[in-house]
């Protein structure tokens, strides 16, 4: 599960002005506030094709968004550290603030099919979804114990037993170079979250026009 909200792009005007600095060609710029001109778009495309050392303007066009996604996905997203900034809801400070529920986790692929499981105390049938439901009950019991006693031992249970399917909200800022890199490197990835993010990135103003794909 991934939810993307409050998408905003900014700094096109400054990026275009800087793009024309090397040849002092500001007079050829035909963009207006809110509209990308044909001449500027043409130069953007040519610089993009010329390589990363020529398309520095992409690093001056920014996009910000709120992303709610499971921890296992953010672990992969965190590989994109250069040029990105992330400000997240604090798991460490707020994990005990509310009761846990199934809605707090990405479970769209968790099966409710019964499995034949061999355990030390015998053989029994169980469903993967039941394991998460039982774990949520344990987390809530530890949470209540921590709120009651303030004993950090019970807080540690929340931190170390928390599944990676737990959803976290982060405000992300990146630039167009980051967005294009994500599109190229993560298209076709087995995690559904990447395909959803990529579709959102492709909707960014003029991005697909610039890369010509």
Write the layout of secondary structure elements.
Layout: E1 3-10, H1 12-19, H2 38-50, E2 62-70, H3 71-77, E3 85-88, H4 91-94, E4 115-119, E5 122-126, H5 128-149, H6 152-161, E6 167-175, H7 176-186, H8 192-202, H9 207-211
Antiparallel strand pairs: 1-2, 2-6, 3-6, 4-5
Defining traits:
213 residues, Gyrase A, domain 2, 2 domains, 4-stranded antiparallel beta sheet, 9 helices
What do you see in this structure?
By secondary structure, the chain is an alpha+beta fold. The protein has two domains: 3-89 and 167-211, Gyrase A, domain 2 (2-Layer Sandwich), CATH 3.30.1360.170; 96-161, no CATH class. The chain has helices at 12-19, 38-50, 71-77, 91-94, 128-149, 152-161, 176-186, 192-202, 207-211, and strands at residues 3-10, 62-70, 85-88, 115-119, 122-126, 167-175. Helix 5 (128-149) runs antiparallel to helix 6 (152-161) and helix 7 packs across helix 8 (192-202). It is elongated and about 75 Å long. The two termini are 27 Å apart.
């Amino acid at each position: 599960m991934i939810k993307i909200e409050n998408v905003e792009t900014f700094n096109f005007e400054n990026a275009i002005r800087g793009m024309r600095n090397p040849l002092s060609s500001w007079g050829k710029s035909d963009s207006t506030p809110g509209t990308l001109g044909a001449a500027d778009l043409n130069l953007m495309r040519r610089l993009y094709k010329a390589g990363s050392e020529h398309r520095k303007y992409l690093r001056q066009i920014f996009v910000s968004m709120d992303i709610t996604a499971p921890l296992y996905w953010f672990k992969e997203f965190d590989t994109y550290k250069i040029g990105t900034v992330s400000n997240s809801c604090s798991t460490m400070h707020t994990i005990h603030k509310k009761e846990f529920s199934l809605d707090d986790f990405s479970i769209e692929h968790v099966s409710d099919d019964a499995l034949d499981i061999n355990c030390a105390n015998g053989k029994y049938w169980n469903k993967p979804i039941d394991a998460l439901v039982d774990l949520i009950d344990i987390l809530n019991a530890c949470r209540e114990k921590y709120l009651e006693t303030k004993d950090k031992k019970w807080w540690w249970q929340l931190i170390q037993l928390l599944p990676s399917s737990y959803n976290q909200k982060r405000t992300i800022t990146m630039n167009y170079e980051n967005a294009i890199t994500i599109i190229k490197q993560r298209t076709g990835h087995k995690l559904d979250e990447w395909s959803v993010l990529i579709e959102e990135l492709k909707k960014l103003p003029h991005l697909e026009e610039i890369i010509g794909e």
